[in-house]
Amino acid sequence: MSAFPPLPAELTIYAASELHAQWLAALDAAPPDGDLEVDASAVAEIDGAGLQLLVALSRQLAARDRALRLVRPSQRLSEACAALGLATLLLARRSTTG
């Protein structure tokens, strides 16, 4: 399992473009196997663009036979995923360990 930069407090349309570029670079630099573990505990604000970015990351990983693991997702992120029917996609593999 490889580490990835933690999700920021603001995962919104205002940050999506910059985050997308950072995540692509981090993904290319990450080891090519195993699940991608992302600390999601700091997310305080999220919108549709932020969720879309997470779905895109999840799909890019799936194409590489890998999975996205959100570690300690914040209450706000969990609620947003549940509200849009994404809880299974993004939170099913979540970890409660550190």
Summarize the structure.
By secondary structure, the protein is of the alpha/beta class. Helix content is 47%, strand content 14%. It has 4 helices and 5 strands; from the N terminus they run ββαββαβαα.
How many distinct helices?
4
Order of strands in the sheet with most strands = 1-3-5
Q: For the residues shown, what is the average pLDDT?
A: 85
From N to C, what is the helix and strand string?
EEHEEHEHH
The count of DSSP E runs of length 2 or more, i.e. the number of strands, is 5
Backbone shape: globular
Please describe the biggest sheet, giving its number of strands, its sense, and whether it closes into a barrel. 3 strands, parallel
Blueprint of the fold:
Blueprint: E1 2-3, E2 10-11, H1 13-29, E3 36-39, E4 45-46, H2 48-62, E5 68-71, H3 75-83, H4 87-91
Parallel strand pairs: 1-3, 2-4, 3-5
Helix pairs in contact: 1-2
Please tell me about this protein's structure.
The protein is of the alpha/beta class and 98 residues long. It is 47% helix and 14% strand. It contains 4 helices and 5 strands. The protein has a 3-stranded parallel β-sheet. A two-stranded parallel ribbon has the order 2-4. Helix 1 (13-29) packs parallel to helix 2. It is globular, with a radius of gyration of 12 Å. The two termini are 13 Å apart. Residues 92-98 have low confidence and may be disordered.
Give the tags.
two-stranded parallel ribbon, disordered C terminus, alpha/beta, globular
